[in-house]
Each structure stands twice: as structure tokens, then as C-alpha cells.
Design a protein that fits this description.
This protein has 284 residues and is mainly alpha-helical. The chain has three domains: 56 residues; 157 residues, no CATH class; 41 residues, no CATH class. The chain is built from nine helices and ten strands. Helix 5 crosses helix 7. The termini are far apart. It comes from Polychaeton citri CBS 116435. Belongs to the ustYa family. Keywords: Membrane, Transmembrane, Transmembrane helix.
Length: 284
């Protein structure tokens, strides 16, 4: 054997072997190559992992939102009807004192102070609505003659008016209500309040107790209630209220002033013959 060739051949084959210029299939079975291949495949799987996580997070968020909405729908009244006063509603806990013997400004025999207290409750009965608010209600209403808005009222004030009228009817000898429509008016008011109570039932619980020297169960009317803050709601109405006797706001398009002031007194004729047609400019 040629010593020179014997020395050079192995080195030349090792140096120039074509298989050394590429990674052979067998070499890829070694751990170092398996790790590189696994990392490469892992990076390719990242987008799919992100998509799956996004889908799961979205599904979880939707589930939580649906649960919260379901709970709120049971705790809060849904917005099935629009009211411009909705944003003025604030809830609070109020303890009622329903004792039979309790005194307050709204109870007792007829007297000027009591009448003033009830009248104060409904002083903001008549309110103005804007055209935009009226459109949201999908209702029509009388446009005030002075152009300040449209005539409306919150139902709660009408319910209080009805209670006030029923109370007056119980003391007919004091208030001398018009007998022509008194019974019809009372009947209307009772049924209107009935509908209101059934529409918005108070779910507070009245417990029954034994009372000394009394055979039957006695209701404890001293109960906590979830109430709308009346002062806040009444303040909202007061900013929109107007006086129907102001000789400028309520004017019938054909019959003139609704409540014309004649000889220092308001004429209170709703319809029929004998109506004096008086326009605001004539009453000045």
C-alpha cells in the first residue's frame, strides 16, 4: 500500500464526503435534531393555540354577561316602556311605619294643613316634554301655546291625585264635591290605583304576630321597602312643571283659554254651551 495514499485517502473522504454537506436522515434521530424540529413545529402551532384561547375567553365572557343579564332581569324592571324620567330614578331602603295610631301630615280629619300637604305632593303634576322625548314615546300630546313643550304628566302623580280625591269623597260634607261626577270619578280612581298596584307590586314581606288580649293574628306593618327616592324624582318633575292656570300655556285651538280668569275666578267649564271664548291676548 502506498503510504502517502493511505494517509491522504481517509482525510480526503472525510473532508469531501457529500453526506457531510447535508444532515442525513439517520442523524435527525439524534436528540439535538429532534429538539430543533420540535421547536420549529411548536412555533407553527402557536397561532392555533392563540385562536383556541381567544375562542374560550370569548365564550366565557359571553356566558358571564348572559348570567349577569339574567340576574338583573329578575332584580330590575326591564325597559319595556320608555320614560324620560327613568334616569331620575334612584333606589333606597325605607322603613315604613304602618301603625294604625301613627300621625303624619297626610292622615286625620280634614283640615287646611292636611289639604296643603296633599296638594304639595301633586304640585308637579303637569309637566313639559320636548319633541324628541315625545317622539321616543311614540305618542301625541297637546303643544303648549307658549311653545315651551308638550303637555304630559307622570302616572305616579295621577295616582296620588286619585288618592287625594278618594279621601275627599270620604268627607263629602267637608269638601262638597260635584255630585254629578263624584261617583264616576271615585270608581275610576279606585280602578286606576288597582292597576298600578298590580303592575308594580310591592314585594316587601309583612309578618303576622300575636297581640296581647287579641285572638287573631296581627300584621306588623313596620317593614323595610325598596323605594324610589321621591325627592329626586319630584325635583326632576319640578324642573319641567308649569301652571295650567297661567293664562298662556293651555289654549284650546277653537275655544281659547282652558281656565280663563274672569272677575278674579277661574272658569271651570269643560264643555257644552255657555263657554266664553277667551284668548290669552283678551285676558290681559
Amino acid at each position: 500500500m502506498d503510504i502517502e495514499n493511505a494517509r491522504s485517502t481517509p482525510y480526503e473522504e472525510e473532508k469531501w464526503s457529500p453526506s457531510d454537506s447535508l444532515i442525513s436522515e439517520d442523524a435527525q434521530d439524534f436528540p439535538i435534531y429532534r429538539g430543533q424540529s420540535s421547536r420549529s413545529a411548536g412555533w407553527k402551532r402557536w397561532p392555533w393555540a392563540l385562536i383556541m384561547h381567544s375562542v374560550l375567553i370569548t365564550a366565557y365572557s359571553i356566558g358571564v354577561a348572559v348570567t349577569i343579564m339574567s340576574v338583573n332581569s329578575r332584580l330590575c324592571p326591564p325597559d319595556l316602556t320608555h320614560s324620560p324620567a327613568a334616569h331620575a330614578v334612584q333606589y333606597e331602603k325605607v322603613s315604613f311605619n304602618g301603625s294604625l295610631s301613627i300621625d303624619n301630615p297626610y292622615k286625620g280629619e280634614p283640615r287646611p294643613e292636611l289639604d296643603q300637604a296633599w296638594s304639595h305632593l301633586i304640585r308637579n303634576l303637569n309637566i313639559r316634554l320636548s319633541k324628541e322625548e315625545l317622539d321616543k314615546l311614540n305618542r301625541s300630546a297637546i303643544e303648549l301655546h307658549d311653545g315651551s313643550g308638550y303637555h304630559a304628566e307622570l302616572s305616579v302623580y295621577h295616582h296620588i291625585h286619585c288618592l287625594k280625591y278618594i279621601r275627599q269623597a270620604l268627607h263629602g260634607d267637608y269638601y262638597h264635591l260635584n255630585p254629578y261626577d263624584r261617583d264616576t270619578h271615585v270608581d275610576h280612581c279606585i280602578d286606576d290605583i288597582r292597576q298600578a298596584l298590580m303592575c308594580n307590586p310591592d314585594l316587601s314581606v309583612v309578618t303576622m304576630e300575636w297581640k296581647p288580649h287579641y285572638r287573631r293574628p296581627w300584621p306588623n306593618f313596620n317593614v323595610d321597602h325598596t323605594c324610589v327616592n321621591w325627592e329626586v324624582l319630584d325635583e326632576w318633575a319640578s324642573r319641567r312643571s308649569f301652571n295650567i292656570f297661567d293664562q298662556k300655556s293651555l289654549v284650546h285651538p277653537e275655544m281659547g283659554l282652558v281656565f280663563p280668569l274672569i272677575d278674579g275666578e277661574y272658569e271651570d267649564i269643560a264643555g257644552g254651551e255657555g263657554i266664553h271664548i277667551i284668548w290669552p291676548e283678551d285676558s290681559a
